[in-house]
Specification:
The protein contains 8 helices and 16 strands. With 250 residues, the chain is α/β, with parallel strands linked by helices.
Length: 250
Amino acid sequence: MEKHLVFFDVDGTLSFHNSEISEVNIAALKKLQAAGHEIFLNTGRSRSIVPKNFTDAVKFDGFVCGSTYVEYHGKVLHRVCVDDETIRGFCRYAKESGMRLLLEGEKQSYGVNSGCFHRCIDITEALEECLVDPSFMHVTKMTSEWDIPKRVAMRFPKVRCINFGGYGEQIVAGYDKAFGMKLLCDKLCIKQENTAAFGDSINDIEMLKFAGKSVIMKSAPAELDAYATLRTTLDDGGVCEGIEKIFFGE
């Protein structure tokens, strides 16, 4: 098989238990690389909150993080941050409403009302001081602890608000998980048909649609079937199953 670029979502695809990759998935990723393919994390997480144990366990060829950050063999190919006015507005909305908000930076994350989901530097008490020039945080995306109401989302047209029925992600408008895939294909002269993507959630749709081969996990929503080459019979371990079936015919 010709060289492929293969992209993996993190939460609900590669990781299920405390940000760990199962041994079977680790072995499958290494087998894929040994066969001459290149592997990438394509995650809604920012680069600063990619689990260190992931990068210790597997030497990924690159990262697509928060849709706006692209890294290949340690070199940053693209980065875009959330604009200052949107950060100011979201932070003030969070503080006033009591919602926890995580500002996911490239190297460090910051939180309002202690943030959410991940450890961060809490800037609540010094919020207005930090918002004088929020660019120092290099925020590539944001995560809210609850869904963002449509009336609130309409106030911030420079980000795309994705609600997951319990939490939300706010991504720079015009970007999605396919952006980094296209950029890497162009840079590495790889045909679109020689890409593959593994995912499990609605924020993976653009990634799955772009990929020449697409694999979704057993518990993925039914609406993802329209974009999938294969639905696995497993969740944890589904990446291994998909790799074996798609790349090795097993």
